[in-house]
Amino acid sequence: MITRLEHQKEIIVAGHRGWKSAYPENTLLSFRRALEIGVDMLEFDLRLSKDKAVVIIHDETVDRTTDGTGKVSDYTLAELKRLDAGGWFGKPFEGLKIPTLEELCELLSSYPDVLLNVEVKPSPDATDVVDAAVAALDRCGFLPRCSFTCFDAAVLAYMYDKHGLKTQGFPGS
């Protein structure tokens, strides 16, 4: 019989988009606070900017989580960095920025045991996102603690076939 304490060791606590119930999702503040309270895993969403920088944002557009409008892929990194990614959540969070994967990797360097659930959002350039993310995460030595997610079966197949990554998602219909 498994005791309650033994069972708890099997549970992984994940910060979905960081600590998104208390802080603006997919921001460095949200990730930092989730890490400080001891999450076992961080989940985050990746997209490419117009100039091919890997940025962390859930939606295809910046409309919901910033003071801008339009597709993420229509903005350069410099333009994305001018947007306010915190004010929508509340006045105390005004001025937060959309982070890059590199910036998150820098934060994660102090948390060597945290697992990463890396979600590549379906898009025409999703395989480019995969290649750039794998390169960045490999440089940091983080690939062994990553699981990659996508809701596009072709992108999942690409992740596995080209990079041999641990993947999760839904099969194509």
From TrEMBL:
Keywords: Hydrolase. The keyword Nucleus does not apply. Residues 11-173 form the GP-PDE domain. One of its GO terms (molecular function) is glycerophosphodiester phosphodiesterase activity. Pfam families: GDPD. SUPFAM superfamilies: PLC-like phosphodiesterases (SSF51695). Its EC number is 3.1.4.46. This is Glycerophosphoryl diester phosphodiesterase. It comes from Paenibacillus konkukensis.
